[in-house]
Description:
alpha/beta; TIM Barrel; 2 domains; 6-stranded parallel beta sheet; 3-stranded antiparallel beta sheet; 16 strands; globular; binds zinc ion
Amino acid sequence: MFRFELDAIDPTTQARVGRWMTPHGTVETPAFMPVGTLGTVKGLTPDMIRSTGAQQVLANTYHLALRPGAEVVQELGGLHRFMNWDGPILTDSGGFQVFSLAKLTKINDDRVVFRSHIDGSLLELSPERAVQIQEQLGADCIMCLDECPPHDVPRDRLIEAVDRTTAWALRCQQAQTRPDQALFGIVQGGTDPELRARSAAGLVPLEFPGYAIGGLSVGEAPSQMYDTLDVTVPLLPTDRPRYLMGVGRPEDLLEAVLRGVDLFDCVMPTRNGRNATAFTSRGLVKLRNSQYRTSTAPLDPACSCLACRDFSLGYLRHLFTAQEMLGPILISLHNLTFYQTLLRELRQAIRTGQSAEFRQAQLAQWRGSV
Length: 370
Ligand SMILES: [Zn+2]
């Protein structure tokens, strides 16, 4: 039901192009998944998401379990029908939000107890419950419950989190009942190479159909993230998709793909879009900047999205200064188009063995930015 095929590996880097086949279609990798936290990529209809080139979207288990509830999504036909997205979907386990957003009250080897960030009600999540909720939601790819501690915790806490994540991965695997969902294991270990190795050594024998790298982009420096990828990616099976969770900036995607990562998700293109910041072929553009007040130029001449095709910079700036809802919609659409275009061109560069040159050219182009 799931297959991952590698089509090309750039011999000059570790970058690879592949196809991740799911019950709801094929994803060309490396791929970027827009984040649809509550079953909606904020402000965009499924047709608009599709028009950016996105193939697979992500939804957040924690948020959907609180509102409207996993059983409601199930009654409404599962996540694909619920949000009218007929392509592949991935849900996270909810763990990251429990550790970052909710008020944590207790964690032990059995489960984590927390208070909802919405109404303060007392809830708990165990590996079995995380899988059960994700089975009710019905995404194609689901994630094991993991413990993701802050990046600056003492080493003994990090070891505890790694070992707990490994034990929970086995319990998640044993709890899974649906054969039409691919359950991914998540490698933890912070920026400590030994702990990354310890985590991978515990998870790889479980033979998950895909592996995620968690616990990065949580406050460490970009160079620490790249160093951690250098030691972590080679520990993962070559014949399974590798998913770097919650990353990141366009330059982070380039660096990670060249180290052999296949899948990404991040709120950055949509969150920045809502905040009037656009990623363009010339670097970041802050649309509130007064220099664009009377500009008739397109936001990005290299982009063919609706925002760049039909509207001037001056008009787009006006939408934000007047707090019109079309502004966040158009720039979210543009930023997602930028990410998808970047990955499409990167896939092509990998096929022709030029991923390193592509990275250098892109970084140089963005640096000459406004
Ligand atoms: Zn555009």
